[in-house]
Amino acid sequence: MLTITQVTDYDINDFGFIHSASWHATYKNIASDDFLSHFTPQNRAAVFKEAIKNSNERFYIAKLNNESIGILILDYYPEGEDEYVGEIKALYLLPDYWGKGYGIEMMNFAISDFTSLKKTKVILWVLEKNLRARHFYEKYGFKFDGQTKIINIGNNEIEMKYYLNL
Fold first, then answer.
1. Would strands 67-75 and 143-152 be described as parallel, antiparallel, or unpaired?
2. Which DSSP state fits 11?
């Protein structure tokens, strides 16, 4: 059974590992090799350990039978949005768990959390070249709102803003 709980100090190394492993699998043909070489589990754990202390975002870890398999970062007050908008900053699973329904369970958790806080809209940003994630979000009901931005992940890439009205 999948359980999703807020990250504790005990989970931080797993959180870093999942972030690193999922980025390497997802972005290996998008981000530069040099950029990805800095995405080590230890580096990501250190980054998130500080972020958790100094952020208004909430960090969650998904476990299947006590094995950490996914991470979720939710922002309840995203910059530039009104108070009724929440943002999914990250939703990542270890590659062995892709396509098995766990991403949907994690998304359902996020949507339920936002709904309980009276949010009426959820947004997220996804790389234009991340076709697997775009398909997942679109199948869930998210729509592209027309906004894009350029991010640098060793090279310039386009991120697309998606939304879901609740």
1. unpaired
2. G
Using only C-alpha atoms, the chain has a radius of gyration, in whole angstroms, of 15
163, 88 in Cβ contact below 8 A?
no
Predicted confidence (pLDDT) per residue in 114-165, tens digit: 999 999 999 999 999 999 999 999 999 999 999 999 999 999 999 999 999 9
pLDDT tens digits, 63-83: 999 999 999 999 999 999 999
Cα separation, 17 vs 45, in Å, equals 7
Q: Are 41 and 146 a contacting pair, CB within 8 Å?
A: no
Q: Counting runs of H as helices and runs of E as strands, what totals does the chain give?
A: 5, 7
Contacts of 34 by beta carbon, 8 Å cutoff, 6+ apart? 154
Supply 112's token pair: 């339920």
Count of beta carbons in the 10 Å neighbourhood of residue 120: 13
Express the helix, strand and coil content of the chain in percent, nearest 5 each.
40, 35, 25
Task: Return the number of other C-beta atoms located less than 10 Å from residue 80's C-beta.
Answer: 6
